[in-house]
Design a protein that fits this description.
alpha+beta; 7 strands; elongated
């Protein structure tokens, strides 16, 4: 039998885990991690330029390097995500046009001067970019694995496997937090190498905040699962000792 306190902790932990998974999944699949906004006066001048349509065409259909697509995003109020890069296109109303990063692009080397291979590889930016791509996938995989362990625990009618569920959720929370940290560090290093124009403002997007919220939710779920497993084990040990006595 499972005490009501343990059952409540398991239910709350499961709800927190579900919310964290939904938030992280939405964050990974959307492009609003970082957004650029140009001041209105400058933006209208840029859009009146005849090169805008050419920039849009190259951005969507061309094989641009990091420097080229970053400059286009600066000029056209772009947004950056883990899998997507987008720009705002006046056609005739403002509409978002997005291009996904291919798998080779996710693992491509980053250079000390973006777009200039002769400047040498920037290992820190390279591995930051790869980590921000891989860590959320690892986090979701850990949560999926923990759910399988939880199902096995229910079938076995045992609370003991929840210790493993708690550890897996703790690791998932650390991976989610690492994703946000790697992304922010990567954007900061990019801006040091290729800073946006003075007329362009950068801001964190709602997708990043969803990923940031998912991390403490996973850690709170981990704490509840670990508490339930540890407390139930102590209670079971005391009950066994009492029966033996």
């Amino acid at each position: 039998m499972v005490d009501n306190r343990y059952a409540t902790a398991l239910v709350i932990g499961s709800v927190l885990s579900l919310l964290a998974t939904v938030y992280l999944s939405v964050a990974v699949g959307t492009q609003n991690w970082y957004q650029y906004r140009m001041v209105p006066a400058t933006n209208s001048n840029a859009n009146s330029n005849g090169n805008t349509s050419e920039l849009v065409k190259e951005f969507i259909h061309g094989d641009l390097d990091e420097k080229a697509y970053s400059d286009t995003m600066f000029l056209l109020n772009g947004t950056l995500g883990l899998w997507w890069r987008c720009i705002m296109v006046p056609n005739p109303k403002m509409a978002s046009q997005c291009v996904s990063f291919t798998l080779p692009q996710q693992f491509a080397s980053k250079y000390k001067e973006p777009g200039n291979e002769k400047s040498g590889e920037d290992l820190l930016r390279t591995y930051m970019w790869r980590c921000q791509f891989l860590l959320p996938l690892v986090s979701l995989a850990l949560v999926f694995l923990s759910s399988l362990v939880g199902v096995c625990a229910c079938l076995c009618r045992s609370v003991t496997p929840t210790l493993g569920v708690g550890v897996l959720h703790l690791l998932a929370g650390l991976c989610s937090l690492g994703t946000v940290c790697c992304f922010l560090a990567g954007v900061d290093l990019l801006h040091r190498s290729a800073s946006p124009p003075e007329a362009v403002d950068g801001a964190l997007g709602w997708s990043l905040y969803l990923a940031l919220i998912s991390s403490p939710l996973q850690m709170m779920a981990a704490a509840l699962f670990l508490w339930a497993a540890r407390s139930h084990r102590k209670s079971y040990t005391r009950m066994t000792a009492y029966r033996v006595a």
